[in-house]
Specification:
134 residues; mainly alpha; 3 strands; flat
Length: 134
């Protein structure tokens, strides 16, 4: 496998997203990094206000997580299908509901973080190969 096949990504997928299929519901996520410049800009903008706390080691884990939640809600989570609240009611996709879902379900947030950071998820060649094997 040449380096382009091994490390090349689809910029369109990185910015517009791929679908994470959780069975009863699906969430579309863009890459946390790479060609998703909005993610990088948002992270920089939101962390700028906290720069002094970061430099002095006074940024709490809760504050850091809150910033990351907001950045993901604004730039990584692009849409969803079939997402329900704890009472089984379908949730409309909007920023407020993304923040609620990811706050209420930290394990889901961790999974989305992990997957949105995986370069393999956004490799065009790999996606085509997987589609051919389906």
């Amino acid at each position: 496998m040449n380096p382009y096949q091994q490390f090349g990504t689809d910029r369109n997928l990185e910015t517009n997203g791929v679908i994470l299929d959780y069975g009863d519901f699906k969430i579309t996520v863009a890459r946390a990094g790479g060609s998703n410049k909005e993610y990088l800009k948002s992270l920089e903008r939101k962390s700028k206000a906290l720069r002094r706390k970061i430099q002095t080691g006074n940024l709490s884990n809760e504050q850091a997580n809150e910033v990351l939640l907001e950045v993901f809600a604004d730039t990584v989570v692009k849409g969803w299908e079939g997402v329900c609240d704890k009472d089984g009611n379908l949730m409309t996709f909007n920023r407020e509901n993304v923040l609620k879902l990811l706050t209420d379900l930290p394990e889901l947030f961790r999974d989305i973080q992990n997957q949105a950071s995986e370069v393999e998820l956004f490799r065009e060649a790999q996606l085509k190969e997987e589609a051919g094997n389906s």
